[in-house]
Amino acid sequence: MRFSGRRGDGLSRWRVAPSGKAVGISLLCTALLAAVGYAYVLPRLGSEASSTCALQVPSPQAVKESASCPVPAEPEAKKSSSSAADGCTEIADITGEEDTLYWLLSANVQDEATVVNICRTITPVIQRDLGKAFDGDTPLKPGLRYGMTLDGDGNFLKATIELSPSQVFYVVQEPAGLRAWKEDVVLDFRRESVTITLDANLVESVHKAGEGMDLASKLTKVFHWDINFVSDAVKGDRCRVVFERKYADDRPTGYGRVLYAEYSGKKTGKKTAILFKDKYYDHNGFELKKDFLRSPLDVLRVTSRYGGRIHPISGVWRHHNGVDFGAPTGTLVRSIARGVVTFAGWKNGLGKSVYIRHDNGHESRYGHLSRIRVREGQRVEQTQLIGLVGQTGDATGPHLDFQILLAGKNRDPLKVLNAKMVKSPPAVPHPLKGRFTKVAQKCLGCLGVPVAAPRTHTDSALAKIP
Question: Same domain for 343 and 284?
């Protein structure tokens, strides 16, 4: 470095006169400082600019003009499971454990009054088709398919419940109000057979054979003049059945008629039922129908017999005038024989009751009913529905108190029903015996039993049918 001075007014002024090397170093430092400042200031400016863009909503015109702060377009509205045109909500699911129609509707329809009206509209349609009690609180089987349609505001439009492939029910909100109906399904009937070996009761044994409770109920009805499946059935007994199975859209949907049934039991011996002209006959061509059914219920469980016992409520020892059949509330109760209803109403102790005077001088009484389906003075036929099992009156649980009287005196119902009331039952008319034999032979062929074609139309030919 050099120092240079100039004289003037007696004062000397000094300045640094940089050399070429010093100037280069100075320029380098200046450049470094500028670079550091640029790196520090620019991100802050960019951050502030971005923050400003996020907080301020520019006008559409500003969005078009500004490329430095673009505003993303709004995403498309999320589409529901139904068509976007009407905005409806479609619900499709299956029932779970302990679901009821009322619960399913309440879980999806907001208005309570609408739920109640839907139940009131569709349950009578379902009840008529099922032939038994059904309401909004009736438990549904798990795994049933159902669906609902609601409009954009959540208002009810339509509901569907499928109890089976052939039992599909609809209820729809129309301008005039709610309307319910059952879908018409074309059914296909196919002839099938099964062999059942009794291991426990009939229902459980049928289930183990891969069939449903409805088939057990039909077998009980077929043999209800000859076999009491509570007292007569023994483990190891065998039942062979030829029946019709119903199909809807190639899906099995229940049972049709029992065409042939053969029960071989230790107590009962061999009992045969052949459907011919809407009646059941044994293998000798005699009609199975007797004066009395073996029971007023299809499914039986004797919980208290006739005779002395300690009353379950009073705790006092006294005579029991009937027999108690345990059964779920709503089980169908049928008249054991044709007759006239002499009483239908409330009786102290027995609750809702029905008394029937029969043509052969006997009287039957049915107590603790939940509902009565006949009226005093009405003529009823054998097997006709007269009421539903319940728990009215003095009862600790749902059951049927069943009594039989003769000349005003109580008799043991099980002994009366087990007695053979008809010595000579009607037989197949003589001109039809040949056709009856062919029907029996065809049913045996379905079971895989080799049989020879009948040679004559005589009674001896009927007797040869096993």
Answer: no
CATH of the domain at 246: 3.10.450.350
SS3 state of residue 280: strand
| Residue 351 near residue 394, CB atoms below 8 Å | yes
Average pLDDT of the chain is: 79
Q: Residues 285, 433: one domain?
A: yes
Residue 357 covered by a domain: yes
Give dist(CA 97, CA 147) in Å, integer: 17
Residue 70 belongs to a domain: no
CA dihedral sign, ordered 447, 453, 456, 460: negative
CA angle 337–340–342, rounded 5-degree value: 120
Does residue 446 belong to any structural domain of this protein? yes
Looking at 397, 418, 439, the residue that finishes a domain is 418
- Residues 452 and 246: their CA atoms lie apart, in Å, by 30
Cα atoms in the Cβ-side hemisphere of radius 13 Å centred on 76: 4
Q: Model confidence over 101-115: pLDDT tens digits?
A: 999 999 999 899 999
Are 95 and 143 contacting, i.e. CB atoms less than 8 angstroms apart? yes
- What is d(CA 138, CA 101) in angstroms, rounded to the nearest whole number? 7
Amino acid identity of 103?
A: W
User: Which residues lie across from 274 on neighbouring strands?
Assistant: 260, 281
Give the number of residues written for the chain: 466
d(CA 143, CA 127): 20
For the chain, how many structural domains are there in total? 3
Neighbour-count burial for 118-148, b at 16+ CB within 10 Å, e otherwise:
bbebbbebbeeeeeebbebebebeeebebeb
Q: At 410, which CATH number?
A: 2.70.70.10
Q: Does 34 map to a domain?
A: no
Final residue of a domain: which of 149, 182, 215? 182
Residue 181's CB is within 10 A of a number of other CB atoms, namely: 12
Selection from 187, 188, 220, 186 nearest residue 202 by Cα: 220
Which domain, by its residues, includes 364?
302-418
pLDDT > 70: percent of the chain? 74
What are the tens digits of pLDDT across the range 246-290?
A: 888 788 888 999 999 999 999 899 999 999 999 999 998 999 988
| Same domain membership, residue 280 and residue 203 | yes
User: Is the whole-model pTM more than 0.85?
Assistant: no
- The answer on 282 and 239 residing in a single domain is yes
